[in-house]
Amino acid sequence: TQTVSQSDAHVTVFEGDSVELRCNYSYGGSIYLSWYIQHHGHGLQFLLKYYSGNPVVQGVNGFEAEFSKSDSSFHLRKASVHWSDSAVYFCAVSTGYQNFYFGKGTSLTVIP
Amino acid sequence: AQTIHQWPVAEIKAVGSPLSLGCTIKGKSSPNLYWYWQATGGTLQQLFYSITVGQVESVVQLNLSASRPKDDQFILSTEKLLLSHSGFYLCAWSPQGYTEVFFGKGTRLTVV
C-alpha cells in the first residue's frame, strides 16, 4: 500500500520568510509526485510535478520542490512567502491512472 | 485550454433523498476522470475513477455510485443520502500520462 506522509499539520511563518513543507512517501516502484494548493472553500490547484530528471522542479508562483530517492521525500519550498500563500498544501503520489494518493495536507499560515 | 466545470456549487439535502452531482471536462479528449470526497479536516478520499466512457471503477464503498455517460462527463449519485455523505466533492481529470491531476471547484454537500 502506498502512503504519503505530511508530517506538519500546521506551519506558521511571517511574510518574506522562507518555508519548507515536508512530504515523504512509501513506494518502491515508479511513481509520479506532485503538489497542490487549496485555498479555503475551493478546489485544489496543481503546483508542480516530478517524474524523472533534475530532482529540483520549479512550479508556479515561485514554488519549487526537491525529490530525494534516498529519503523518499518530495519537499516543497518557497524562498519568500506572501500572505496570499496562506492555504492548505497537499502532496500526492501517482503510481498509475487508477490512483492519486494524497497526504493529509499542511495548513500554511503567513502572517503579514 | 482544458476546463472542468462542476455542478451544483452547493446542495443542502435531506437524509434519505437522492443526489446527483456532475462534472464536465472540455478541451481534452479521453481524460482519466476521478471523484474525490473531502471531509471537514481536509483528508482527500478517492471514490471512483474512469478511463473510458461507460467504465467506472470504485475505490471505496460509501453507498455512492458513479457513471460516465459521455467522454467528457462524470456523474456521482446515490438514491439515498446519509448524514455521513456531507462534505466537499471534487471531480478531477488527469492526462493519459497521469503525471498530475486537475480539479474542479467542488460541490459542497450538506445532508440534514
Give me the secondary-structure topology.
The complex is a heterodimer of chains A (about 110) and B (about 110).
Chain A: E1 3-5, E2 10-14, E3 19-21, E4 24-26, E5 32-38, E6 45-50, E7 56-58, E8 64-68, E9 73-78, E10 87-96, E11 99-102, E12 106-111
Parallel strand pairs in A: 2-12
Antiparallel strand pairs in A: 1-4, 3-9, 5-6, 5-10, 7-8, 8-9, 10-11, 10-12
Chain B: E1 3-7, E2 10-13, E3 19-26, E4 32-38, E5 44-52, E6 55-58, E7 65-70, E8 73-78, E9 87-94, E10 102-103, E11 107-111
Parallel strand pairs in B: 2-11
Antiparallel strand pairs in B: 1-3, 3-8, 4-5, 4-9, 5-6, 7-8, 9-10, 9-11
Question: In words, what does this structure look like?
Answer:
The complex is a heterodimer of chains A (112) and B (112). Chain A is globular, with a radius of gyration of 13 Å. Chain A has no helices and 12 strands. Chain A has one domain (3-111): Sandwich (Immunoglobulin-like), CATH 2.60.40.10. The mean pLDDT of chain A is 93. Chain A starts with a strand and ends with a strand. With 112 residues, chain A is mostly beta strands. In chain A, strands 2, 5, 6, 10, 11 and 12 form a 6-stranded mixed sheet that branches. In chain A, strands 3-9-8-7 form a 4-stranded antiparallel sheet, with no helix packed on it. In chain A, strands 1-4 form a two-stranded antiparallel sheet. In chain B, strand 5 and strand 6 form a beta hairpin. The mean pLDDT of chain B is 93. In chain B, the strands form 2 sheets. In chain B, strands 2, 4, 5, 6, 9, 10 and 11 form a 7-stranded mixed sheet that branches. Chain B has strands spanning 3-7, 10-13, 19-26, 32-38, 44-52, 55-58, 65-70, 73-78, 87-94, 102-103, 107-111. The N and C termini of chain B lie far apart (38 Å). Chain B has 112 residues and is mainly β. Chain B has one domain: Immunoglobulin-like, CATH 2.60.40.10. Chain B contains no helices and 11 strands. The A-B interface holds A 32, 34, 36, 38, 41-46, 49, 51, 88, 90, 92, 94, 96-102, 104-105, 107 and B 6, 32, 34, 42-44, 46, 49, 51, 57, 59, 90, 92, 94, 96, 98-106, 108.
